[in-house]
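Anyone? Bumping this.
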Amino acid sequence: MEPLETEDKLNENIAQVRDLLNKQKLVENIVHRSQSTNQELVEDLVHRQHLVELQSLLAQLHTGDIAYILEVLPLEDRIVIWDQIKTERGGDVLLEVSDSVRKNLIEALSSDDLLKALNQMDGDDLAYIADDIPPALLLIRQETLTAEDQKWLQSARAYEEDTVGYLMSNEMVVVLETDTLDIAAQKLRSLKELPIHNDTLFVVDRRGTLKGILSLQDILLNDPALPIHNIMLTDIIKFSPNDDAGEASQAFARYDLVSAPVANERGKLIGRVTVDVVMDFIREETTEDVLNMAGISGEEDLFAPILSSARNRGLWLIVNLFAVFAISRIIGLFEATLAQIVSLAVLMPIVANIGGNIGNQTAALIIRGITLGQINSENTFYLFRKELGVSALNGTVIGLVVGLFAYVFYQNLSLAVVIAVSMFLTLVVAALLGMSVPILLDKMGRDPALGSSIITTATVDSVGFFIFLGLASIFLV
Amino acid sequence: MEPLETEDKLNENIAQVRDLLNKQKLVENIVHRSQSTNQELVEDLVHRQHLVELQSLLAQLHTGDIAYILEVLPLEDRIVIWDQIKTERGGDVLLEVSDSVRKNLIEALSSDDLLKALNQMDGDDLAYIADDIPPALLLIRQETLTAEDQKWLQSARAYEEDTVGYLMSNEMVVVLETDTLDIAAQKLRSLKELPIHNDTLFVVDRRGTLKGILSLQDILLNDPALPIHNIMLTDIIKFSPNDDAGEASQAFARYDLVSAPVANERGKLIGRVTVDVVMDFIREETTEDVLNMAGISGEEDLFAPILSSARNRGLWLIVNLFAVFAISRIIGLFEATLAQIVSLAVLMPIVANIGGNIGNQTAALIIRGITLGQINSENTFYLFRKELGVSALNGTVIGLVVGLFAYVFYQNLSLAVVIAVSMFLTLVVAALLGMSVPILLDKMGRDPALGSSIITTATVDSVGFFIFLGLASIFLV
């Protein structure tokens, strides 16, 4: 039996090594943020319902990791994970997930579970997600807040979603300009917990007016006996709570900021914006353009239930339906011409398809320019002229090629000329529409990307069919 | 004459006040980063050729502001501004502008001017833009670098554009784990200039192996006599130079990082990545999706000359041409059917247009999911099932509505049923294509967004026309 025993032993050893390796892998993961492995492990445990192991794995993960894993799982799996973390980190995780996933979770959680999570949040956290919480629950939570937190929650909720006031937090270290650096250092030491991204302290006078900023480096590198106002920076970037969040995030990128003070119209320091919030804002904002262009509300959660996804895309599809019925009626005007020259039906989708794509190209350029803050009343005219030039150039080349194609298949010179000219005209109109639609939406205070692809395709199709069939009725019948 | 003199005096006073107000406005601008006013002032001075005033205004602006203003102006204006700043800040500004504007500037500048700017850069800066510089000029500049900078330039250039190695810098403060906090503070004081975003120092052993990080706060808040290894954080997020830049930027967002160390495969500290670089990367990367989907190379400069813009969009338009010719030939197969039933020509663009839009909606969702790192082999199957469900649901509703529309206008039940069924089938295929195209492109290592809108529209159009006209030939003729 000995050989067998040895083999058993060997196998046992191998199993132990494997186990150790696996444990090692876990530790490695956490340190090396190999996110995909973490995620696979979690998904595996969720599906095998190994809840004890799942809990211990989740306990080792960063809140950001848990939020990320929730993002990429369907609702039922989200709930399994939520049950494991809710008692300790429910509040933190709810803050970290994206808007759409948060809404999805809040809908699915019991009032009791949700209230548990809310109880882990302070006034600042609550203000950030208040709009998504059922008002009755928020009221219950609100009553147990400190007076200061209640006040902050109320004032912060007064700001609209796309403003600096909405992004700002009240966590910051404030010092008096007349204090010394040493007192500033003592103040830091006296705090139980320092705010995130605390690269600078904010300096105020006795009345709370923002006077400047004092970096940690300056405290560290200068004589502790010096007064703060000798050292602080006064030429600073500050925001007003009503500033546009998009513009503020551009300022963060442009001036390489980590944190910046927010002051009200009387110059009083009221809050702080940090780069982590700005980065999340940029990520959500810029990637939403892609969805909005296609006519999807930017909030759609990739793993939302079928019914809510279908509803989410429904609005623009209704717009789309009305548009195509109009297009069909425009073509219907030329039914007699189509009955006479059937080749028109074969060729007309060429005009519509290329026209739609050119319109979308121009719209995409303009939408990106608006998102990056590169388009203003000064340069709009220049851009119109330029895009017209580009489309005329491309329209000439494409018109000639399409005309040639039509001639090769139908040996009809008039038909070839009609489609070439239609192609050129449609492309110029497409470029004009691709520019005008997002700029007009933006001027109207709407999201310039919203539905632009559907609007552009529909209008360019209508115009293209009308030009092509109209010219054909005049010159070919 | 007195009244006149008084009036003169008054006017002079008004002028002075106005002048002061304007000056005040300038100062206010710089402090309050009212970017649009700065930009208007600069544009005005450029156009009026007030070069002296322009120079003094530019001298007061942050490098980030100048880079931004260059972004939103055509080339000839960019050159006027460049001439005013080149001697002192040409290098810095060249680093700050976006890739496309940098390329545009480098092409337009004289070798002499460009070399001046390059001479203002160190090895780290040069590595960042090296690919855009004419090799001969880079060689000239390289020879005057210090040996250390030359070495850095060479090793940094070895990394591909979308890796952490490409984003990393060699500017960092490194301390030994055996030193005390006091020695770390002394080291900081001894530096002439501190690196940007220097929130943490990196701790190594004698062999240069990364051991942990030490935050400025920890230096400030602890007993200076303590050794660094007692205080430093060892459970840290670090990157390898070959890590994907997109994944690293997601880690920055997920873990709220300001700076993070980069270590090679032997664990040796080789560089540092900071949040400003990551934020720029995210802004360029995510906003490029919008362009790429529409078939524009992501690098297009909004204010590039017409010819280069036309060329930039030309490649995908050629693809588009081939695609529409194929579509037209598919319709051509059914010429006989179309000649018999002209209403088919009137109705068929409905199928193509809605189908294309549904395909684009699905593609947009998937592209965004890939950009945000939310799609992996684990959840692809789930997503396919879900998107099929959404399209079947929307397809049923839309099919019925379109069928009703056809019936109202043509009083032909068979025709109504054929278009309703075609609509349903096309929408399901559109969703499948909208999912498959970006996922396949991504699996092939290509940008999932590239040309997806053109590819999706073309394939959905072909399929839609084929299904509709095919069913019509079978059941209506």
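Late reply, but here is one note on the structure posted above: Chain B has four domains: 1-25, 26-162, 174-293, 306-475.
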